[in-house]
């Protein structure tokens, strides 16, 4: 290990020193070793992000109940004014409770959507380890503050709205951060499969958040928020100790962006130069910086001299990385001009509307349409997320195999419409039917959502039109996910209003319409994918 490598996380330094002492003579593929660690750490991080989002959907069932069928505690006075609301939590003890609960969802999601665009801009220009650590700690504190409303007997609607809005802003650090880190460490090959498996953190976070919240929802709903919040803070500390945002930070050669030739292709005769293969890591800082510059069309004397000069020990430790960030980060308008960004952003608007409506309202819908209690309804709702894991992996594999991401998304969106229709009308008729349809619906609803927010976003972030510039990943991810998050905010809000003033059938009609619109927005990209497919078959 070179002593000149900069700003390595403390925990990683200790861990690597132990590994190299235990295996001093064994050749270790450090790149593969670190890639595995990056997947694990980013998986942990975003699992926690979603784990702290989910409890509100479970706790809704006890914030506003029909108390007439429940037994009040001893010495509790029941009269005509509180007969149906004594077990509720003010201010959600009125007939407008669904709309008020919808306001909490909207406060989080609109704040999340608005802040996402700024978050992606910031993520391109700062150290992602600090960015994610701060975001996770702040998100954990926000979740904890929501939970303390119960022991401190807080009943102010504006308190809950403010905490939800702050949580929404803090949570925007997650997605641009983790996607940019994973994009830095992994090349183009089998990206759909890697991201499909990795993206299961979203569903796993929802599952864990649901199960933790369900454990305490009927005894002490404050713990449903406080325990995920404390877990989130602890995970943020782990990220601070071990996360490496970019291979260059520890002397590893980053994957070559698609469309560029490697250093070996340019200097193939220099086989013994000491520059390692792109799968491994190089302890020589100067060599790896020169390697980083050495793509055809980009390499030049000035680049090499700049690379050499920035390894000088008299320069500040972070100067090279800060300059690199400032020079390479793409602007908002530039990201919008990348082919496909606008179409996928609009498609995700509608796809995420459907997914987040299920995320925030499914436990309440199951309880309202069946005879199941709050805990059982929450437990059953996790089947939607289990199906989502399978859908994300299936979409990633099909995308890698076919190379037609738009077609895969469109096919799953088209199949989701009849499944939602069937679930609406017969899903509550029996436990077995409910389970089967939730698994299928989760697969078809979350598959396109997962593919667009991961593999597609990362692919567009290194589009050939950008040249060697890989600093568009976080910005493109923020644009696509930010647009989708506006839809995610609209969906639960409309669901709250429709369930209050109409019925649940109209909520499902809204969801089916959103899936159809998401499919239509992709029509141009589907046509383009099919054109390329048939052209390749013809030649």
> Helix share of residues?
over 70%
The total of beta strands comes to: 0
Number of helices: 22
Residue stretches low in confidence (pLDDT < 50, at least 5 long) are 258-279, 283-327
**Sheet with the most strands, sense and barrel status:** none
Order of helices and strands: HHHHHHHHHHHHHHHHHHHHHH
How much of the residues is beta strand, in percent?
A: under 5%
User: Mean pLDDT, nearest integer?
Assistant: 79
Question: What class do helices, strands and sheet pairing give?
Answer: mainly alpha
Measured on Cα atoms, how large is the radius of gyration?
A: 25 Å
For the terminal residues, how far apart are their CA atoms? 50 Å
Spatial shape? globular
Summed up:
This protein is mainly α.
What keyword list fits this structure?
single chain, 539 residues, mainly alpha, 70% helix, 0% strand
Structure report:
- By secondary structure, this protein is mainly alpha-helical.
- It contains 22 helices and no strands.
- It has helices spanning 10-22, 30-53, 55-63, 97-123, 128-147, 157-171, 174-185, 191-198, 200-216, 221-242, 263-266, 285-293, 301-309, 319-328, 332-336, 341-369, 374-402, 405-426, 431-461, 473-501, 504-521, 523-538.
- Helix 3 runs antiparallel to helix 10 (221-242) and helix 18 packs antiparallel against helix 19 (431-461).
- The relative contact order is 0.14.
- Mean pLDDT is 79; it is low at 258-279 and 283-327.
List the helices and strands and how they pair.
Layout: H1 10-22, H2 30-53, H3 55-63, H4 97-123, H5 128-147, H6 157-171, H7 174-185, H8 191-198, H9 200-216, H10 221-242, H11 263-266, H12 285-293, H13 301-309, H14 319-328, H15 332-336, H16 341-369, H17 374-402, H18 405-426, H19 431-461, H20 473-501, H21 504-521, H22 523-538
Helix pairs in contact: 1-10, 2-5, 2-7, 2-9, 2-10, 3-9, 3-10, 3-16, 4-6, 4-20, 5-6, 5-7, 5-10, 7-20, 8-17, 8-19, 9-10, 9-17, 12-13, 16-17, 16-19, 16-20, 16-21, 17-19, 18-19, 18-21, 18-22, 19-20, 20-21
């Amino acid at each position: 290990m070179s002593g000149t490598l900069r700003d390595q996380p403390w925990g990683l330094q200790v861990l690597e020193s132990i590994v190299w002492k235990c295996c001093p003579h064994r050749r270790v593929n450090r790149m593969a070793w670190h890639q595995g660690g990056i997947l694990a750490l980013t998986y942990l991080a975003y699992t926690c992000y979603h784990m702290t989002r989910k409890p509100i959907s479970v706790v809704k069932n006890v914030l506003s109940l029909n108390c007439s069928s429940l037994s009040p505690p001893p010495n509790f006075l029941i009269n005509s004014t509180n007969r149906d609301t004594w077990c509720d939590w003010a201010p959600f003890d009125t007939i407008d409770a669904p709309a008020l609960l919808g306001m909490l969802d909207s406060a989080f999601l609109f704040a999340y959507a608005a802040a996402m665009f700024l978050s992606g801009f910031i993520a391109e220009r700062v150290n992602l380890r600090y960015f994610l650590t701060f975001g996770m700690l702040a998100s954990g504190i926000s979740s904890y503050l929501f939970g303390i409303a119960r022991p401190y007997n807080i009943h102010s609607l504006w308190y809950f709205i403010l905490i939800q809005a702050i949580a929404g802003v803090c949570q925007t650090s997650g997605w641009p951060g983790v996607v940019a880190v994973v994009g830095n460490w992994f090349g183009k090959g089998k990206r759909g499969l890697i991201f499909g498996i990795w993206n299961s953190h979203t569903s796993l976070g929802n599952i864990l958040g649901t199960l933790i919240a369900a454990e305490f929802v009927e005894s002490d709903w404050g713990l449903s928020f406080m325990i995920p919040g404390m877990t989130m803070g602890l995970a943020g500390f782990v990220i601070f100790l071990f996360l490496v945002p970019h291979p260059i930070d520890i002397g590893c050669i980053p994957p070559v962006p698609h469309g560029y030739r490697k250093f070996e292709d340019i200097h193939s005769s220099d086989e013994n130069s000491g520059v390692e293969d792109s799968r491994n890591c190089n302890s020589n800082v100067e060599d790896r910086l020169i390697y980083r510059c050495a793509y055809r069309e980009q390499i030049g004397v000035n680049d090499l001299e700049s690379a050499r000069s920035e390894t000088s020990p008299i320069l500040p430790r972070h100067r090279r990385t800060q300059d690199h960030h400032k020079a390479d980060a793409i602007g908002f308008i530039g990201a919008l001009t990348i082919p496909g960004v606008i179409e996928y952003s609009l498609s995700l608007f509608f796809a995420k509307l459907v997914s987040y409506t299920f995320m925030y309202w499914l436990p309440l819908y199951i309880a309202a349409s069946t005879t199941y209690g709050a805990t059982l309804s929450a437990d059953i709702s996790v089947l939607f997320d289990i199906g989502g894991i399978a859908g994300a992996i299936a979409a990633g594999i099909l995308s890698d195999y076919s190379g037609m991401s738009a077609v895969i998304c469109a096919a799953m969106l088209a199949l989701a419409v009849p499944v939602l229709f069937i679930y609406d009308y017969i899903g509550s008729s029996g436990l077995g039917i409910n389970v089967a349809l939730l698994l299928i619906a989760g697969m078809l609803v979350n598959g396109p959502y997962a593919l667009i927010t991961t593999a597609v976003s990362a692919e567009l972030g290194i589009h050939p039109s950008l040249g060697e510039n890989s600093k568009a990943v976080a910005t493109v991810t923020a644009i696509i996910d930010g647009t989708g998050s506006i839809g995610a905010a609209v969906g639960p809000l409309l669901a709250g209003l429709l369930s209050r003033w109409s019925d649940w059938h109209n909520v499902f009609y809204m969801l089916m319409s959103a899936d159809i619109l998401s499919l239509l927005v992709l029509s141009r990209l589907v046509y383009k994918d099919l054109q390329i497919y048939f052209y390749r078959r013809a030649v």
